Amino acid sequence: MRRRLLTVARAEWIHNRRDVRSLIVIIALPVVLLLLYGYGINYDLDHLPFAVWDQDGTVTSRSLVEQFQHTRYFDYRELITRQERIDELMGQRAVVFVLVIPPDLSYRLGAGKTVAVQFILDGSETTRANVALGYLEVALADYSAQVQATYLSREGVTLAPPFEVRNTILYNPDLKSTPFIVPGLIAILLTLLSALLTSTAIVREREWGSFESLIASPASPAEIMIGKLLPYAIIAFADVLLCMVVGRLVFGVAPVGSVALLLLTSATYLLASLAIGLFFSTVARTQQQAILFAMLLTFLPTIILSGFVFPIRTMPLPIQIISQVFPATHFLVVIRSLYLKGAGLAILWPRVLVLLGFTVVLVGLAARRFQKKL
Fold first, then answer.
1. How far is the C-alpha of 254 from the C-alpha of 175, rounded, in Å?
2. Which residues contact 78 (CB under 8 A, 6 or more apart)?
3. Helices 287-294 and 259-283, axial angle in degrees (round to 10)
4. Does residue 96 contact residue 132 with C-beta atoms inside 8 Å?
5. How far is CA 87 from CA 135, 296, 345, in A?
6. What φ, ψ does residue 101 adopt, rounded to 5°?
7. Backbone angles phi, psi at 75, to 5 degrees
8. What pTM was computed for the model?
9. pLDDT digit string (tens) for 68-86?
10. SS3 55
11. Cα dist from 197 to 69, 73, 183, 283, 369, whole Å
């Protein structure tokens, strides 16, 4: 019995050693995943982009701005001159906050009076907004200490607290996590569902013995791919409606923006996600392989690298570039912008165009991979 066991084990060892795919799974896969997610998962937030509306325009106001510039936590982007520009920058996700300096800053500080300084924050990403608030409080406290030291040494009097902070949080004033999480969860669920639905569409025909009738049909490979995709697109679109209803009734989270635009962009994203599963189905040899590919190459990257949990801007540049390969990265921006900001197509069209490009490329790859022969 022992000899038989050793013989079987030796044969399996030789098989794994000679099988390139097994070696890739055994050696390369853990290393790649460890490097990818080890660099991608980052709880530290720094280099937060901000703009300044300096209505004072004095040496004192510029020194306040420099307090935020000379730190790794903030990145100065722009000096704005009008209120409308704040909405534009926030809607485009170009800045995390805007520092608004009142026109009487230098006068009131010189008179030993308190100055009201305003921070306008993007609250659509609750974790980032909370961290930014903490950084802002520390930076302003340091500058307050400098101001008090300067004027005390000059006047020899006790001053009132130099600054009164007035925070204005846009899109999610209470910084609740639910309005931020629910749209992201919808994207995650649709990604997993769509990829799984179509991942077995072609390979199943091979296992069930019906592949011969499929290749004997007069339909072209592209027509077969599209025909396979459409029924699942209808099913997945029904799930979009279901998720929206549940999100509204259970969590009280509804889109602020256009529902029609949300449905249109969701349909575009579904086609891209379904095309991913369809491509896996043409590559895999068994249904189990197809499902494994779909789970490994869609679900994990969508959670870790798309911005669902960890902000993409905190990741190293190579990982940020890799994250753009996944359709979920672009759809998360779209769905959160529609749910929280009420953004329109004028802002979101580049992301929608990218999703359309994913769909065309992936369906084309699946059709090219599919060959009408045994």
1. 16
2. 51, 52, 85, 89, 94, 95
3. 140
4. yes
5. 22, 39, 16
6. -100, 125
7. -125, 115
8. 0.77
9. 888 888 889 989 988 888 8
10. coil
11. 49, 43, 21, 15, 19
